[in-house]
Amino acid sequence: MKKSYWVFATIALALLVDRAGGWLLGKITKESQFRYSRLYNGNEEADVLFMGNSRGLSFFQPYAEEITGLRTANLSYNGMPIELASLLTQDYLDRHKAPKVLMLDLSLMDSVRMDNKLAYQFNHYTPFSGRLSNLLKEKFTNDYYAGKLSHLYRHNSEVFQRCFFYWKKSDKDWLLDRVISPEMVANVGNHAPIRFHYDHKMLGHLANMVKYAQQKGTKVELVVNPYYPDFVPKIVNLDTLVMDVQRTAGVTVRRYTNAVQATEAFGDYQHVNKVGAKFYIDRLVADGVIQAKPN
Amino acid sequence: MIFNSLTFWAFIALFVPIYFALKGNPRLWLSLIASYVFYGWWDWRFLTLISLSTFIDYYLGAFIRDASLLRKQNTWTHVFGYGVLMAMLCLVMNFLSANFYASLPYLDYWWFPTIGLWLAFLVMFLTDKVSNQNNRGYRMMVVSMVLNLGFLGFFKYFNFFSDSFANLMNQFGVSASWNTLNIILPVGISFYTFQSMSYTIDVYRKHLEPELNYLKFATFVAFWPQLVAGPIVRAADFLPQFQKDHDFHWDRIITGTGRVLWGFFKKCVVADSLAPFVDQTFAEPNAFTSINLLIGVFFYAFQIYCDFSGYSDIAIGFARILGFDFMENFKKPYFSQNFSEFWSRWHISLSSWLRDYLYIPLGGNRHGNLATYKNNMLTMLLGGLWHGANWTFVFWGLLHGMYLIGQRLLGKPFGTLMNGLRFPGFLKLSINIALTFFFTCLAWIFFRASSFSKASDVISGIAGFEGFSFVNVMNKFMVMKGFLLIGILLAVEISDIKMNWNGIAYRNPSFRIAAYATLLLLIVFFGTFGSGAFIYFQF
Predict the structure, then answer these.
(1) Taking CA atoms, what residue in B is nearest to A19?
(2) In Å, what is the CA distance from A281 to each residue of A20, B260, B420?
(3) Choosing among A5, A10, A121, A162, which should be mutated to test the B contact, i.e. which has the most B CBs within 10 A?
(4) Mean pLDDT across chain A, nearest whole number?
(5) How would you write B409-423 as a 3-class SS string?
(6) Is residue B224 part of a domain?
(7) Which of A15, A28, A142, A156 to mutate to test the interface with B (most CBs of B within 10 A)?
(8) Where a domain ends, among B237, B263, B283?
(9) More confident: B211 or A209
């Protein structure tokens, strides 16, 4: 027993530091200026709520706010799965006054390009959301219970790292500022065709999300954000996706696939950069999708 | 079963207490069964292969030294019995997985272990009959080499060489195309084959007495900690350790646990955190700018080091807990000042195996410069091929062969130049380390890339310097985390040169408690879990 005390001491020390560290990181999670922390704090009142995957960041908030005078919130994240998008949107609507508009980029309706494991990266938000807890318990059982056992483990994710990075500063102005490379421009013709892979379950999550927002009095705008113009013909089943979504969600989809034309407005085939985002926001405002606040 | 899985921890929780509760043969049986469970968890059907390899080397080992050792035990009856057992096992296997070998055309592949066994049996029998006391040992050793390398060649290199041959014929306008066999590469086959071969060679060289206890020998071949990814333990070092029972010892628990934790830190925290960025850049190099490709290569150098040396640390740690001592496999290789030093620090169990069983028998450096260069090159080429059935691995070996030859040719003039420049010692050391690391990374590109064209895309992408700016770095969070973790790793390794952290952890309980708890928390907080196997499993 005498020789084994260090084993128990090591475990005890690890548990102690784990709890203390977990408490500290939980505090950071709560206070952070990261979008999901603001969501769960109820500090993200907005007139327009954006949602999408990495392409959803094309809804460039600083510029949208500047030219419309509206408050915006953007819950987009790289590889956002529709199920998580629906959950986060519902959590947002439960904690805030209903925004006037919810804008959703449809490119998250793709099971191949979405990050199926993204939800478990939101483990550190489970203390704030019953929906999130249930989702993790159901789909990432080991991670959920590991997060209960170790509070540090709950914070072991890139989403938390971002939360930490944006502890004291806003994350609203993040968007690609690179320009698509000449090689990519030259090779676009050689790119393999891409397809949206989706199923009834995904359409169901989208429909639930739309219905929930509409019940709260929020107008829902479904859009397809811009692609690099020569890349658009590579998308083989966009029409089918749009039709299926319109039929299931009962909302007309606005297609902005070709809304931005200039090469220097893109970071790559699927993402506009800051320049492109401004073009795009101008177009949304011009079309009345986002209505500027009257002076 | 992989170390970074929950199943493995359940295995450990069950195995270790029972292991220490047993003594003698029951403990050996437990170790053997546990090792087969550990290996079979990946694909139980290949247990026939490892048991076949064990069987062949057990009998050949004894025959090499003195056939009468086994004749007294009615060996051929054993052999026959074993053959029947293997045939029955294969039949059962075939019933249990009807389609397993169905992909092989023209041959009932599921009979392979049985055919292999009976062929081995026949070859051994005939060799025994046609040999006399003077040449039997040599002939049996050759049979062992042929059979072991035959299995390795069939499972690992058959498609590679048949494709390469077909391509070569096509170059000469001769149409040579056939269906390649859908062969599954058995995990760890290169490791246990080399380990097994070291036994027969050492017995032949009289460095080791043949092991006549089949249970001990089978446990030696299949011992789970090092079975699938090394270190490649030598029979002469490892078999004698089975001669006595190892008691539970706190000193071993202390040092073994530290080693295991450090191994998990390297694998789960460093290697697996770097892997996603590396995978992206090497999958589609053309889609990445120069800075990203450079980071990708830099990260890969640390990914493969931490992945492989992490496995070795875990294996060495668990073996130490169980009472066994394995040879060191890595000694801070990226601090090497030249390539011969690099190879005395990197994958030491393989490089020393190649040195002792290939380079030195070829003549080593004893027959002049040209012969030395040839031996260096041949050893490195075969070392490259050992890693995988792809010309990129061979090229990686070729590069290292060239580095070693280049070092012999240019080492002295370079040293004179450095002395002439009167740099301070620390700067000279840094330049040497940086140069060695640079060329090592260059070779890693070929090791990691799936083809020469991808490797050339990576190199030309980096050399083009297009988009060489921090703005263009993709996945900045992943990259920042990667550099932070590499920083922690290097800080520990550099300070360890002076401090010897293991020694302090052993002597000072307070430090040990703090250090082990810190490692545990770092693994929990930064670790990537469920990301899959170790890189060297594929070899």
Answers:
(1) B521
(2) 44, 54, 64
(3) A10
(4) 91
(5) HHHHHHHHHHHHCCC
(6) yes
(7) A156
(8) B237
(9) A209
